[in-house]
Amino acid sequence: MSRFSKAAALAGLLCLGTVAAVAAESFPGVGRPATPAEVKAWDIDVGPDFAGLPKGSGSVDRGQTVWESKCESCHGTFAESNSVFTPLVGGTTAEDMKTGHTANLRRTDFPQRTTFMKVATVSTLYDYIRRAMPWNAPKTLSDDDVYAVLAYLLNLAEIVPSDFTLSDANIAEVQAMMPNRNGMTTAHALWPGPGFGTEANKPDTGNTPCMSNCKPKAEQVSILPDYAWNAHGNLAGQNRAVGPVRGMKTGPDEAEAEAGSPALALAEKSGCLACHALNAKLVGPSYREVAARYAGKDSATALVGKLKDGSEGVWGDIPMPAQTELADGDARVLVDWILAGAPEK
Amino acid sequence: MSEGLPRPPAPAMDAGASNGRLRRAPENFLTAEQIALVGKGRRDFLRSTFLAAAAGVAGAAALGRPAAAAEGDDAILKPQPWATSLGQPVAANPYGVPSKYERALARRQSPGLTQVAAASVSFAPLQGMFGIITPSGLHFERHHQGWYDIDPAKHRFMVNGARPEFVKTPKVYTLDDIMRLPPVSRMHFIECGANTGMEWGNVAVPTVQYSHGMLSCSEFTGVPLRTLLEDCGADLKAAKYVLAEGGDGSAMTRTIPIELVLSGEVMVAYGQNGEMLRPENGYPLRLVVPGVQGVSWVKWLRRVEVGDKPYATKDEAVHYIDLMPDGQHRQYTSIQECKSVITSPSGGQMLLDKGYFNVSGLAWSGRGKISRVDVSFDGGVNWVEATLQTPILSKCLTRFNVPWNWDGRPAVLQSRAMDETGFVQPSYGQLRAVRGTRSIYHNNAIQSWKVADSGEISNVQIL
């Protein structure tokens, strides 16, 4: 047992003593029993043993349909896109499905680590898609559509065939084929409990507090590259103007650099740019596309309404959610700016 | 360049060069065309421009200075508006804001780190902060699916069991309920597991804000999670883990060992630095898991489930896993091991002068209290012990200071912390020997700041 574990165990005992006294207290009138319906509504976690997995199924075909309307805009047609998030699929092989280790993770020259290269547990994917996807409308997929989207992803990852239907009955068989299912280890000292038997694991580095002549010389192995000096803007403007030091001037002052459009700043602050870009389709259409569509029409008032109340079907299947928190005046500023072609300055 | 910095300009000396005072870079010494070149990565001409501009200023100062100096300082001799007119009334700012002269110290993003700002990071400006408490408005941010300002009257917290036998009475609490319970207030650091993650392979960022700024420290107020679990009749002997879940779109989930909950340290918090949590930090309710990486401090906390198996959630099965050289990932890595960094002077800053400086920084450990911090001025060959500033608290930032007389020659500043378990912060060489360079998480290596003879300070790595 390490010194730390002993200390922690001792601290645990002491706390047990004090908290036991507290536990004798009760708190009448505080909290109430949860109803079964309430627990069911929120208890949506699915564990590696598939505890909590709802009954249901979804085919690769159905998954492709859902994917194209709700997932493709961020993740790409084949879940390979690197433009918004890191790629989900790629880098695994049929051999990996046999060994349960993604071989490319051993290579230092492999450019990308996709979700399927890393994830060991298929339950993780079901759980996460259900609770957090689509990114701009989490928890809106039916349980069956979560199965379908996962089936489509498993097919893209070449784990299941294109006529596959994933269900609660066969998901364990899929687990047995996951390419990196044996790729995790808990043999480390960074878990703050004994759950994985890690109390036996000592920290993996063992520096000593040497005070003098600790090494022949300071071996410098890396310096800040020249191009990185100003990659974070003008450092002079990121330091206080009084005190023992000043920031180095590495670019123009912030006031000069950031004289952008106030409407653009409002769009950023209001979260619009999570789904819209000025000049490229993201989740929603680009602002320049919107400006082109409504050019020459008197549409500003109607668009303010769409912005506030939400809209559906104009630009495809992904609905624009209602922006209820946006003040009327701000909505008008945004619409006028979009219709003017969303200028940056 | 082997010595690590682009060739420094000749120090621009005052008219009275004998005092050795360096002059900082004059403002606006670049033309628009030159700025564009800098933007494209060209910096080679920048030094000569700086030199010319600095020389010009030094010349002007030599002409202008003596007359004023004879009588004294205008800041004293001339009446100032604030001393000769009426100031502003009380409550001019109903919620006070920092001085307009402090705008430089703000949360900032690292350009190019992420594609969308709703799933990103903003870094705290450690380079300008004092003591150990992070002002709530400067607390670093990490959001997975954007942040919300949740109406506290509509927020609920639920405790349930993975199986019925784990929790006798699953319960729902409102904020009214939780704020009626006996509170505790404790100061703890929170550090993202990916802090310093951009530096695993090589130096990548210029300042401590970007290298270490996913670090903050607050006084949190709330109710020990253990109290709430006991109130629900949780079977704390059968339980081995709890799952914490957020109420936002990402519904973030993380597994936490029951032993940490039983210790009483894990807290369901609503307070931060004497007021309610800020929305960006989880208003109205977040989990506080001292010593453990920030991702486990689930914000907008809506539910805790008691169970007996770990959950392998997305943020412990796809992200927040540590890639080792053999291709295996370490899973459920959670503790933030002992680490420290010098915040002043630090990368991207310039010393104004030769002579006395207070070298100051922060040290912390997820395993307990800091017991000692040593500082080196020669890249780790020789060390001196720093003074630890009180309070020195468990799983909390500790401020250290050490005096330094800078002689104007190049130096490499490092700090090395030790915690009460005897663990000593590793060097880059030691860390990479076991973990390689491809991990993203848990980089707690000794940080090096190189001071050039110009007084300019840059980020370097020493084995």
TrEMBL record, chain A:
Tree of life domain: Bacteria
Cytochrome c domain ranges (all copies): 58-157, 255-342
Annotated signal peptide: 1-23
Claim: Zinc is one of the keywords in the record: no
Pfam families linked: Cytochrom_C (PF00034), Cytochrome_CBB3 (PF13442)
InterPro entries in alphabetical order: Cyt_c-like_dom, Cyt_c-like_dom_sf, Cyt_c_ID, Cytochrome_c-type_DH
Key words of the record: Electron transport, Heme, Iron, Metal-binding, Signal, Transport
Protein name: C-type cytochrome
Naturally occurring in which organism (per UniProt): Azospirillum oleiclasticum
Lineage: Bacteria, Pseudomonadati, Pseudomonadota, Alphaproteobacteria, Rhodospirillales
